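Thread: NDP complex, take 2
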Amino acid sequence: MTAKIIDGKLFAENLRGAITGHVARLKSEHGITPGLAVVIVGEDPASQVYVSNKAKQTAEVGMNSFKHELPADTSEADLLALVEKLNAHPAVHGILVQLPLPGHIDTTKVIETIDPAKDVDCFTPANVGKVQIGLPGPVSCTPLGCLMLLRDHFAGDLTGKHAVILGRSNLVGKPMAQLLLRDNCTVTVAHSNTQNLADVVRQADIVVAAVGRPEMVRGDWLKPGAVVIDVGINRVPAPEKGEGKTKLVGDVAYAEAAEVASAITPVPGGVGPMTIACLLANTITTASLINGLVPPS
Ligand code: NDP
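Output below.
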């Protein structure tokens, strides 16, 4: 079997197209221009790239983009004051504080200061709880992107599928489990203490790998026909490209897995592009809810 490639890049492009339409409607019918504020503290190069991409795509879909770049020695008090200011700013409907923050700043305190109504990353306890009980609001971006790809692949119906999620982080594994449960999957969450991991994965109709271990999931761990969503982004040496060169790989051994799975997301070009698109989708959700409107489904 050669797996179908689930093209996250194309899906994300189409999603951004739909978001552009939602932005235009919010503007023309309600006079609302959704606004996303991104805050970055320090000069971590990877974070700088993420933040620039987020700002660029925000502007491309017609939203207002507010970028706040603060020096690495910014005090916690100053950062909290900025978050409070953005909480109160009427043109800002989404606030994203790029993580990780410098060590002298208490990340939990910063997250808990973000108004849940504007928490487009879905990090605040209030929004985590809403996802759990199925109330409207923003949904964790990466799991939401994975869910969209799966719904598209299964034509909207995941009922009865056994999903095995590898990883239980607050960022990916746990919210992914909640979303798949809501879509009527039988969900198993595996982690570093799981026994006989390969046997557990072999039971899955759907595998979501989010462990941060390069190519850990092997082809012979998969049930033939399984659908594989590879969240992992790992930079590894690539001597075949030249001395000192590197490449990105997922948590799944792609070539082996593609021989057994019925469908698989590539790395790069799978889940990654969906994450930013879902951030924009969450900003539409928060902008709608803040203004008493029903968010587009
Ligand atoms: P974390 O490090 O927070 O969590 C990793 C999880 O994997 C933990 O629950 C850990 O278990 C589990 N784990 C680690 N090693 C093993 C193992 N050998 N066997 C079974 N489980 C294991 O990572 P994140 O969830 O933040 O990210 C996971 C991956 O996804 C990373 O590669 C990251 O770069 C990528 N990522 C990609 C995104 C995208 O947009 N595509 C967005 C976010 C993340 P335990 O809890 O027991 O320690």
